[in-house]
Amino acid sequence: MDLPPVTKDYRLEIAEKDYLDPVAIFGNDHPVQMEIGCGKGRFITELAKRNPDINFYAVEVNRSVLCSACELALSEGVENVRFLHVGAEVLQKYIRPGTIGRIYLNFSCPFPKKAYENKRLTNVRFLTIYKDLLAPGAEIHQKTDNMHFFEFSLEQYSLAGYKLKNVSLDLHASGFEENIITEYEQRFLSQGLPIYRLEAYL
Fold first, then answer.
1. What domains sit in the chain, N to C, each tagged with a CATH number?
2. pLDDT in single tens digits along all 202 residues of the chain
3. Rounded to whole angstroms, how far apart are CA atoms 27 and 9?
4. Could you count the other beta carbons within 10 Å of the beta carbon of residue 163?
């Protein structure tokens, strides 16, 4: 779903709502979860296949990468995913408050330079947006290979009022059995790098 382009003033943009109707979009009233930054779609496609009674929004700003994700889902016959070509900054324009059962952040760009930290998807400004979208009791599940980004994220969750559980400094040595390996994750594993994971909730 190619949503309209946005202005540079996101506050003005999200003030005028254009909520998506998940019942109309998916043809059912199943609960909805979301991956922000879905990449080429390996994770969201497998997740949707494992959970046919949950609907998924997959958000991605890179058009060519998003096309690859769409093609993968189509080739796998997945029907409970809809892809949104939009930035996380304006999700409040399209998603009703309190309707997302879980948000996945898998290997988000760490934007290592200090000047770009407000672009990180775990920056307080984004975590505040997610607060509005998440249903009561919902969680954020995050994975990354970047230790410094993970440490930054831990701090930002605390500043934004989230609590943490199931924090792992080496996911693949933790015995966690429900993990779905993403494209990036496979690359990092082949290099012997640890994967960091956490679950955040309000």
1. 10-201 (3.40.50.150)
2. 666 554 456 667 788 899 999 999 999 999 999 999 999 999 999 999 999 999 999 999 999 999 999 999 999 999 999 999 999 999 999 999 999 999 999 999 999 998 899 999 999 999 999 999 999 999 999 999 999 999 999 999 999 999 999 999 999 888 787 899 888 888 888 888 899 999 999 9
3. 33
4. 11
Q: Determine the Cα–Cα distance for residues 151 and 166; give it in Å rounded to an integer.
A: 15
DSSP string, 146-161: -HHHHHHHHHHHHHTT
CA–CA gap between residue 121 and residue 88 (Å, rounded): 8
SS3 17: coil
- Name 104's bridge partners: 35, 141
Owner of token pair 């189509």: 74
8 A C-beta contact, residue 194 and residue 145: yes
